[in-house]
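Annual report, structural modelling task.

Input specification for the guanosine-5'-triphosphate complex:
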Amino acid sequence: MIAVDRGRYTCMVDDEPLTAMRARELGRKSVVVGDRVGLVGDVSGSTGSLARIVRIEERSSVLRRTADDDDTTAEGRLERVVVANADQLVIVSALADPPPRTGFIDRCLVAAYDAGIVPLLCLTKADLAGPAEVLGYYAELDLPHVLTEPDGDLSALREVLAGRVSVMVGHSGVGKSTLVNRLVPDADRAVGVVSAVGKGRHTSTSAVALRLPSKEASWIIDTPGVRSFGLALVSAESLLHGFPDLVEGTVDCPPNCEHTETDPECALPAWVTAGHADVRRLESYRRLLASRSGGDGLEGPDRG
Ligand SMILES: Nc1nc2c(ncn2[C@@H]2O[C@H](COP(=O)(O)OP(=O)(O)OP(=O)(O)O)[C@@H](O)[C@H]2O)c(=O)[nH]1
Ligand SMILES: [Zn+2]
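The model returned the following structure:
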């Protein structure tokens, strides 16, 4: 399933888009972009009656989020599946205009590790600023990255997208649409698929999958409605997976240590002070932890 709009689901059947609706049998199960589904009814699209989605295949990965951390309503605490079956999270960040926010990138990394999909850092606007500072911050991580600029070569990016289902996230203005339009020259046609069932892509807030013109089946999923990843339901332990460079420093922590400022026996501060990791990484971890539990970690320039 590649797009959903007002109860109409666009599914690819034999490389052709087909509009379908959900069948009652699905109950309350939500069908999300990336789902592989079973269809019944008119799957040729010739009779004018819509095919129905009767089954959702088991998902190989689930990218989820809660609403933003400061949304403490019951609705805001609800977990949503953003995309199913993706295998790569492309975190798009501009090197300038707007400046990179490592807090946001860290938040995305946690979401990627939590979903079990690999992260890729895509640094745009390399014509405006260099990547040294951002890459320095992530020096201890095996974090693959690509740089892009307006008329530059996109082959490095194309290469890491090849054969994969990649989800793209990033703040407004970092250059996601620019990249998609360059990667998928006939994006308009693909957008047309969505428009045909309702509103156009630019007003849509749900994810849309676009097929890249390449030999292998490669998809890029744009998530215009996802500005960030609320992590309310991610445990402290899982949160730490987004900070693999800090894990070694926790071996001497007491059991159940969440590594907050108020954990007196936490071994991390001393380990970081000894030079084993960048102190900003510990600060970022603690900020995410605090934001997650509704604390005051939301302020500051690095708020995700
Ligand atoms: N200098 C420079 N400008 C860029 C680059 N990529 C995109 N831009 C510009 O940055 C602005 C925002 O680009 P978009 O592609 O609309 O950004 P977006 O991430 O899709 O933003 P939303 O649609 O708000 O989510 C546009 O004016 C682009 O022309 C780049 O590599 N270098
Ligand atoms: Zn600790």
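DSSP finds ten helices and 13 strands in the chain.
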